[in-house]
Amino acid sequence: MINFIIVDDDRMIIKLIEDFASKVNFLNYKGSYTSVVDALNDNASEDIDLIFLDVELPEMSGIEYLKNFRKKPMIIMISTYPDYAVDAFEYEAVDFLLKPFVFSRFFRSVQKAVKMNKFLEMQFNEEE
Amino acid sequence: MVLNCIIIDDDKLSRKVIEEFVNRTESLNLINSYSSAVEAINVFNIGEEINLIFLDIEMPVMTGLEFLKTLSDPPQIVIISAKEKYALEAFEYDVTDYLLKPVSYARFFKAVDKVLNHYRDSHDKRVAEENDEIFIKKSSSLVRLKYDDILWIEALENYVIVNTFSEKFTIHFTMKAIEKKLPLSKFKRVHRSYIVNVSRINVIEDNAIIVNIEDGSKVIPIGKSYKDKLMNDLNLMVK
User: Fold this and answer.
1) Are B27 and B112 in contact (CB under 8 A)?
2) Which residue of B has its CA nearest to A81?
3) Is the pTM of this model over 0.80?
4) Domain tally for chain A?
5) Alpha carbon of B217 to those of B38, B70, B167, B179, B186: distances in Å?
6) Of the partner residues B88, B124, B137, the one whose CB lies closest to the CB of residue A124
7) Which residues of B are less than 8 Å from A123 in CB distance?
8) How many domains does chain B have?
9) Residue B114 sits in a domain of what CATH number?
10) Is A127 on the interface with B (CB under 8 A)?
11) What is the pLDDT of residues A26-56, one digit of tens each?
12) What ipTM does the predicted assembly reach?
């Protein structure tokens, strides 16, 4: 089971992802926020594996705060501009979705996350 | 772990820069360097195992992405391009990283680190499923632990301590979660705070289990609520 949240201010995209995710039985929707910091401050986001993150939110919506999660979540970046794709590699995102995207493209990104998650699950991180 | 790699770039200077980076990196072994994708295709026929390709995109005759399409079972790919615009398409090909020229050694090294982690992923996932082992991440490297090497696991507040003959690993996990991950046949929960590797049990006393350690033995208490189930399970195994 992969717990995910959406960080975006676009109501339509939030609805779209919620709809798509409901068709996928291993995705568990935990809520939407307009910044990573808001998500961190909400205790409900304690155990998040994956974030759909809109890169156009101001100040990259706090991407540097990702390491403050108990377990650093995976990111799938979303944007209307293809130019941000190269940044997605810099931030080690699992995938980059160009709006608007269809279900099959969404599903492919989720499958990449599953693959990555299996690997992360096999790892136990030594306490620093 | 050393990875065999090749470079494909029509620009001689770019090739030289990456060649130098590869030579500086201990975990990489340069098989060859090519000025075109067409030349590079032959390397796959020699039988030398290629684990990683540093691939330029804008090249005459065949672009890097066109070349990628021809590979049925590609190794890991790190794109090195002067242009950002191919990054979107690169995500469709499942490349491991995408570097913009001019590339710094630090950025190059970060990409290599990603490659090494991914390599362990697909290779070791198969091995792990067959060989009963787990991985512990120690700063930036992975320590492979065979189940057989784990003696017992002890819980402490928000984390657990995995005890082997030589080391103790303190990891951020709950007892419940770790119990779920370990195979039932090899590991038993004997107490609220202890899980024991059954094959390491030396003696079972009335309310305790004795495990051999390097310089003596460790006494592990058996919790009241765990005792009955434990005895039942062990009996089953003895039968």
Assistant:
1) yes
2) B88
3) no
4) 1
5) 64, 60, 15, 23, 20
6) B137
7) 135-137, 142
8) 2
9) 3.40.50.2300
10) yes
11) 899 999 988 877 887 886 657 888 999 988 8
12) 0.79
